[in-house]
Amino acid sequence: MPPVPLPEHEESDDDESPSPPLPEALVTFGGGNKFVYSDDEELDSLKQKVNEEDAESSESEDNSSECDTPERDTEKLWYRPYSRGDTVVDKACWIRYFEQIHDSEGFDIKDYPGSAPMSSIFPMQGYLQHPEFMEKMKDFARRAIEHYNEKMGTSYVVNEILKVNGHSIKHFMYYITLSVKNGENEYFQVKVVDRLHLYNSLDFPIVRPRAKGGLDI
Q1: Facing residues of 178 across strands?
Q2: Coiled-coil region(s) at which residues (predicted)?
Q3: Are strands 24-27 and 202-209 parallel, antiparallel or unpaired?
Q4: The CATH number fitting domain 124-209, selected from 3.10.450.10, 3.30.420.40, 3.40.50.720, 3.40.980.10
Q5: Which of 112, 113, 115, 122 could form a disulfide with 89 if both were Cys (CB 3.0 to 4.6 A apart)?
């Protein structure tokens, strides 16, 4: 017996409406998935929600002070220490720090705010406890004083390294304060530019008696 053909399906108003399309996955930078809805009503609802959240965020920012939200202040981020455990110093300390660098040309820094994007020259007092570092600084100072003696007709001899500040950009720079002997003890300042990528290449842009009125050693 031949199979009986099934009746063709006729559309009617009683049929259920088709299911809404599934959202398409959209890969985000965070590694998760978000979904894009093709349904206009759903999309309008999402837009409204986002707009409401943006409005609340803007109102919150307007009512907050700089102290309440320091992380929003881009300028302050440059003055924050690299290490979260370090103390954030006040603006007055930064002003003194920059003034001391300017006035002493990097040799006398009493108020160091700590390692941060805006800090440049830094004290290297901890390194003075290492014999190898001290020998290196004495050798740099000796070469600088020899150049000074040849130019000025003097006969200074390096006595003691008192303090060292450092600064690194393209090359490493040392700001050395030392005592010298020439009948009696005197103080000198030596700036050394150590071109690390060049063997035995040193420059001494500053070799001079220590400026009077500087900060205490």
Answers
A1: 161, 188
A2: none
A3: unpaired
A4: 3.10.450.10
A5: 113
